Amino acid sequence: MAYDFNQVVDRRGSSSLKWDVKDNELPMWVADMDFKAAPCIREALEKRLAQGIYGYSIEPEEWAKSYVRWWQRRHGLQMKEEELVFVTGVVPAISSAVRKFTTPGEKVAVMTPVYNIFFNSIVNNGRTPLQCQLDYKDGAYSLNFASLEAVLSDPQVSLLILCNPQNPVGKIWSKEELATIGAMARKHGVLVFSDEIHCDLTDPGKEYVPFALASEENRMNSVTAMAPTKCFNIAGIQTAAVYAANPVLRHKIWRQINTDEVGEGNVFAADAAIAAFNEGEPWLEELRAYIYENKQYVYQFVKEQLPKVHAVPQDCTYLMWLDVRAYIGEGETSKGLAQRIREKTGLYLSNGRQYRGDGDSFLRLNVACPRVTLEEGLLRLKKGLEEEVL
Questions:
Q1: pLDDT confidence tier of residue 389, bands split at 50, 70 and 90
Q2: pTM higher than 0.70, yes or no?
Q3: Which CATH architecture does the domain made up of 54-278 adopt?
Q4: How far apart are CA 361 and CA 332, in angstroms?
């Protein structure tokens, strides 16, 4: 491999959200990789840094061009440069969409279990989340279209926030599934906001389908959030985009993003995105292969060492969804289990409760780390669970 993903980088004492923990603790929770960013990105930032002046910045033409080329080449989605709007992050874009496309007191549909911050964007803006819970059968997830139709038909629902691919369950939605979701949404007058930040973290040989590509109906009744931040590990740079082919929707989301003052990038935002999309593909391909091998290691470890745990099969993301219901007693929660594991072993995982749906039976494990770190984390997990007595 040309890139060393086995290198352990000490992030303690760096004001890292992930690593601001006790000395004996091992954080494997938040979606933040423990790998250095691609050399091409670091070089672009170093070049900008060397200039020595860090004033107000605008997005050059190459910023939009790099997005257009990347999504067309890798995902088959043809966008126009003018259909993209800069935003500082996917979460700010979601909150702007909630404020623009819904009114206080209305309901926003989500398919659970799903990224917990969706609920923050909904509730903090005075709206109510309405869940369509995914079906979990024989250790795998699927979408119940009858349940989705019931949710979308609620006259108080005007927006569906879709996670494509789905975090935390690692589900890639097919073109047919996305087209059906889009048709249902259109039928009931519901706009779709598709969060596609994890789209480039599919397993080797697996491909996601952009929501807007599944049908013309989808394309014209949706706003999509996209960014290089998750797959290239540059979330702290705060650089993202929203795509809307429908000019009316695009104007509305552009207006709200600027009203919310989240439409101006910092001095590094455009350079980082351009470098990632124009030069970072070889690094990304090796990253995907490394993460895939880490996930295979988890599957094997769980099978051999923790037979009561089920690692849900997935085709994307580096966030593994572990079914630990065998260790959760009556009246207890995954939040409590995660806390006990942390107290006993120092291993810090995400509890599934915060993702709603059936998440109270699960823990989320971040495997985007050097193999030696993963091995240590799994040994701690085993120790913590072995001490659980039901």
A1: low
A2: yes
A3: 3-Layer(aba) Sandwich (3.40)
A4: 10
